Amino acid sequence: MSDLSHKASGAPFGTMEFLRIGIHTSISGSLEKAALKAAELGANTFQIFSSSPRMWRPSVPAKDDIVAMRRARERLDLRPLVIHVNYLVNLASLDPVIRERSITSFRGELERAAAIGAEYLVTHPGNYRGLAVDQAIAAFVTLRDKSKQSPALRDELREFVAKKIGALARPDDILFSADLPKTRSGKIMRRLLRDIAEGRALGDTTTLADPNVVASLRDEYEDKEG
Question: What is the tally of structural domains in the chain?
Fold first, then answer.
């Protein structure tokens, strides 16, 4: 890992002043000890877990520990700090329980990274765990101006997602819709939209503000596929 902030100081490329050589250290003793261990082993950047990597329930770092680590980093020029996300996180899972836990856990990782002062967060999107390859990403898009719907816009949106998030996130299908089902639970809305995209019978729609929205979406999708 290279750090370009040394460029202004005039340090030539290839020197130890410019290079960033890192290591993963444990926070089991404290955040400060993780930083000190990295420096002791000759590193000038390092990676940590912000909590146990094999538990859903996170630990919360103490404010004093955060301050102590920040001081150690400044004193020892340890930068950037990288946090590796919990191993259990699987943002690609279609299992509603695992996905909900993963989203909650990932949000916690972001919050702890901001609190600790980490510059980077490493995560893995996860995997579909044996689901069919044709269960690709389908995106439902509501436009402010419905007249702008076009095949060209679909292609533009696919490429925008691929550029901003990555090629693996490029939607296989995009459906322009006038509205989306409104419910208190995002999990219920995702299930209904997945049922529509995969051509399955719709589940319970009694909690929706307007069940007709889902029926309309299904008809639109079937017309498009047909």
Answer: 2
Domain containing residue 153: 138-225
User: Rounded CA gap, 198 and 190, in Å?
Assistant: 12
> Residue 190: what pLDDT?
74
Q: What is the CATH number of the domain that holds 67?
A: 3.20.20.150
**Residues of the chain falling short of pLDDT 70:** 1-18, 128-136, 181, 183-187, 198, 207, 209, 220-226
9 and 97 both lie in a single domain: yes
Distance CA 211, CA 204 (A): 10
Q: Find the DSSP H helices in 92-210.
A: 96-116, 151-164, 186-197
CA–CA gap between residue 77 and residue 62 (Å, rounded): 22
Question: Residue 132 falls within a domain, yes or no?
Answer: no
Q: How far apart are CA 27 and CA 34, in angstroms?
A: 5
Are 82 and 178 in a shared domain?
Answer: no
How far is the C-alpha of 120 from the C-alpha of 225, rounded, in Å? Answer: 41
Cα(152)–Cα(173) distance, rounded to whole angstroms?
13
State the pLDDT at residue 6: 39
Determine if the pTM surpasses 0.70: no
For residue 198, being part of any structural domain is answered with: yes
What is the reported pLDDT for 9? 41
The per-residue pLDDT for 7 is 38
Q: Is the peptide bond before 80 cis (omega within 30 degrees of 0)?
A: yes
Q: Residue 212 falls within a domain, yes or no?
A: yes
